[in-house]
Amino acid sequence: MVTKDELLEIAERAIDAALPSEGERPSKLVEAMRYAVGTGGKRIRPLVCLASAVAVGGRAVDASAASAAIELLHNYTLVHDDLPAMDNDEMRRGKPTVWKKYGEADAILAADALQALAFLAAARSPRNAGQVVAALGEAGYGVVAGQVEDISATGDTQYIYEHKTADLFVAAAAMGALAGGGSDADVARLRTFALNLGLAFQYEDDLLDGDSPYPRAETERLVADHTAAAIAALDGLPGDTEFLRSLAQRLVGRSV
Amino acid sequence: MVTKDELLEIAERAIDAALPSEGERPSKLVEAMRYAVGTGGKRIRPLVCLASAVAVGGRAVDASAASAAIELLHNYTLVHDDLPAMDNDEMRRGKPTVWKKYGEADAILAADALQALAFLAAARSPRNAGQVVAALGEAGYGVVAGQVEDISATGDTQYIYEHKTADLFVAAAAMGALAGGGSDADVARLRTFALNLGLAFQYEDDLLDGDSPYPRAETERLVADHTAAAIAALDGLPGDTEFLRSLAQRLVGRSV
């Protein structure tokens, strides 16, 4: 079985390669982008991407550019969500947010640049580049649509969770499966896996934060049901699915 | 010769097709994006893109998705440039800017969504989709790098003009040439054309605004030199270059 450490090493290397080198001009932009993306994060979306390439019978390294792309896209959304005009958050992961450290203008721009670099990385996918980019583009639009719904007065929880959270998981899995050379049926299986994984992840988050829109027992049931649906979707895949299966299981209680 | 009206019609139709339909959910996001992209603009970058497909011997319609992509990307940058944390502009093209009309949060998000949709459109290019996306990604990063340099205290004019302005012209031409099936040599010719066109456009802008960083006579010479270099780069292309030639000529005095 492919190990988490092996996948994390591929992901960190790919993320580093997708960003301009430190000191490259304009150095402030490069510094702000690298600060935003950070190091040593959980990298759950890149892990899902790389393991999806393995699950369809490909090699994790085939999806390395795609795994960097999804992480850059995810991190740009966090930088914009933290802005004063949005959530007005000053701290993230125990450090000052990008706008707090570099100012609003450079935070807006660093995130914009991260989105462009995400698509540039996706386009470098050695297989099915057009489809890999399209999957990222759909999620890149969906995640914003979910956020717009989230900050509106009449936000619909189901819509918000599917788009703001699950779309990036779905894209991660689809991009990995496409980069790994998966069949249409296998890409569809992994999309189903990731949709359910993303929803389980979000409901689990609600439990941990104690702010679920549903009663606790109902939310616990949703976590269990979506975890089971995610795992069931892995049946029939030709490659090693052990990592994805254990990832889904460990998400419950968030021991990942 | 292909006419400007023919190209504009292709561009407007492609831009409309690249955006969600009015009323689609979340309707506020769709409305803000459509407001940002507008209608009846000059669409210079889409025109360069479509005419570049023709210049390499392809059909303008081959580059229709690419032409929408470059316009969406251009418009997202304008929305973010206008924000209070950036230029703090309340009016653009005689109308309230997006943040003034929809609020800062929705303006940030609408522009983010436009960038994602730009790449989604580029990925739909019927030919060379991976390279078309890569050209857009390079320009998408370059235009932000140019803007970061522009708002820094020690901004370098040459760097700013090449990236903030010319990169989008270069991408427009390269994307059109790639979508039109151009050879590497022809794509390179059109990149040279567009770099010079973009610089001539920027210096001409400085003359019109009366805020050139160089003496007026020097700026006039730069406009003339870059226009001549743009037109010279069209030599050797296999297709109809008449439109691009006349576009470069009409840029002087901005009669386009």
Outline the structure in words.
The structure is a homodimer of 256-residue chains. The first copy, chain A, has 256 residues and is an all-alpha fold. Chain A has a single domain (4-250), classed as Farnesyl Diphosphate Synthase (Orthogonal Bundle), CATH 1.10.600.10. Chain A is built from eleven helices and two strands. A two-stranded antiparallel sheet of chain A has the order 1-2. In chain A, a hairpin with a 2-residue loop joins strand 1 and strand 2. In chain A, helix 1 (4-18) packs across helix 3. Chain A starts with a helix and ends in a 5-residue tail after the last helix. In chain A, 59% of the residues are buried. The model of chain A has no long low-confidence stretch (mean pLDDT 95). The A-B interface holds A 25-26, 28-29, 76-77, 80, 83, 85-86, 103-106, 108-109, 112-113, 115-117, 119-120, 122-125, 129-131, 133-134, 136-138, 140-141, 144-145, 147-149, 151-152, 159 and B 25-26, 28-29, 76-77, 80, 83, 85-86, 103-106, 108-109, 112-113, 115-117, 119-120, 122-125, 129-131, 133-134, 136-138, 140-141, 144-145, 147-149, 151-152, 159.
Topology diagram in text:
2 copies of one chain form a homodimer.
Chain A lengths: L3 H15 L8 H11 L6 H12 L8 H18 L9 E2 L2 E2 L1 H5 L1 H20 L5 H23 L5 H23 L4 H26 L6 H18 L8 H10 L5
Antiparallel strand pairs in A: 1-2
